[in-house]
Amino acid sequence: AALLWGTILLACSCSPGPPRVGAAPLLAATYVLDDANGLGREFDGIGAVSGGGATSRLLVNYQEPYRSQILDYLFKPNFGASLHILKVEIGGDAQSTDGTEPSHMHYENDENYFRGYEWWLMKEAKKRNPKIKLIGLPWAFPGWIGKGENWPYDYPDITAYYIVSWILGAKQYHDLDIDYIGIWNERAFSSKYIKLLRYTLDKHGLEQVRIIASDRLWEPISFVMMIDSELHGVVDVIGAHYPGTKTVKNAILTGKKLWSSEDYSTFNNDVGAGCWARILNQNYVNGNMTSTIAWNLVASYYEELPFGRCGLMTAQEPWSGHYKVESPIWITAHTTQFTQPGWSYLQVDGHLEGGGSFVALTDGLGNLTIIIETMSHNHSKCIRPPLPNFSVIPQRATFYLGGSFYMVETLQVWHSRLDFESGNSSLFQQLHPVEVWKGRFSLDLDVDEVYTLTTLTSGRKCACPEPPPPQPFPSNYKDDFNIRNPPFSEAPNFADQTGVFEYFVNASDPGDHVFTLRQVVVQRPITWVSDADQTISVIGNFKWVNMTVTCDIYIEKPRDGGVFIAGRVDNGGIYVRRTKGVFFWVFADGTYRVTGDLAGQEILMKGLAGVRDNAWHTLTLNIQGNSASGLLNGYLLWENVTISKPRNGWAALGTRSFELAQFDNFHVE
Length: 669
What we know:
alpha/beta; TIM Barrel; Jelly Rolls; 8-stranded parallel β-barrel; 8-stranded antiparallel beta sheet; 10 helices; about 15% helix; disordered N terminus
């Protein structure tokens, strides 16, 4: 009788997918979901990173209602990505992938908890989801912490004080409770420092803040924790980056929570969505990881910087209001809208016979969520690590629900199909519920699909009105920086690539230059990558060829100080040291230079300008075709400099070294 019933059930099994006409018999397999023998690991949530670095730079400059719409798609429960975790960079005044983020302590005697945009972003996330978990992690540190050395662990008490100050400032000035704190992104850890950090946290009443280590690889942190019981006692989560869904034996033996604390980092088209779908399941199925965090949250930086559009969605045009809800947002929703941190995974193998994977989670109160993915190899490659070959075929999966799930009668169904033939993907669509008969149901699974089956009825696919169409950066752009109470410390659309450029009030100025933009980093930071030896902030349209850049400049450093304006700037981010362009420099010693690179090695012209420090001057750089010329205070200073390359690039401004300098009345046309 049981066999007969099985045959009848298979014959009329629920298949929400498209009917397969004249197809060969499907591979069929059965899977049991049962909580009678206990549950698997506790689920800690799905999240994303803002920072590492400056990945949300352009988001803050969006006008309403578009900015709020973007934030809703990221954080609002049962709306879009509905993220459980937001991880932010603790700014360190240094280049951390796509720009620099400002520190709350530029100098030893300086504290300011209103710089940058991460405070604002955390508050916006909490406003939408009060339960969202917050993580802080440094990529770099201000130079004073190392007392001249490019290393944060020589004076661990100073580093711990600096990090704890950030956590205390989050609470004092923004009423934000930081849940987790990291050590040093993808760099060495110091056991002594981690122990001292725990001690400093506890001393300041921050016992509830958990420590993640080491945001790099599974080893050596796991091994060191096995032999150092004190370190084992203070690390709460082992966080690895880009683990390729695998873990190591030592990590499991520690008994600690295992997270993929940075992952994805892949161009956000449908292949990126396939990558994200595969690792969201398989990080647990293959690697016991109970949280996966995407770098990055939203691609809000100039696309030609490194890792352009490697965010869950794209918002890189604040001047037009255009943004794009990319497919990874809806892949995220398959998990986040039907689970919560604190739920538990069921103990299942999780591998599908025909390729692909499934996970099942419960809140322990009778609710059940099953997430299935059948991503094929070529349609789910992440940027790293390399993906070994595997195959996925259409298949029929039959699930038996046991234990407390035996009485479940219907499951809601949400479905995505990534269509690489026609490009007509179907994303996060609600299908007819599945009827469960005597604890059993079947599904026909095609390749490159995601299914969520759940007892929860709260899922929603929300859509804001269409955003405005895309527009290039304005071809005529001015900023006089005249703003008394700016909402953010940085001027719109300037993307700092070395150094930090902030609004400044020049109280001693007689009137023309009270409000300026000032470069404020005066010591090389403890870097994460190779920052330039000069400071630079870029702006505009990377495709620009012919342009005129004008700016008032004020050198503050006597004798060897200097500043520049530039055009056709071709690089930034982690590659900032190799930046080429047309750079017009003036120096406090009265000389000028024109160079083809930021490093100042490729000298195209030089001479006397008569510029001095602590006085305002106006520089104008004109680039037309293969020729450039420069004006000082409205008078021609140099001309007929031949430019062979780069052919195009951003406008920029900056300084000769880590030095104070001011800029005003910026204009590019």
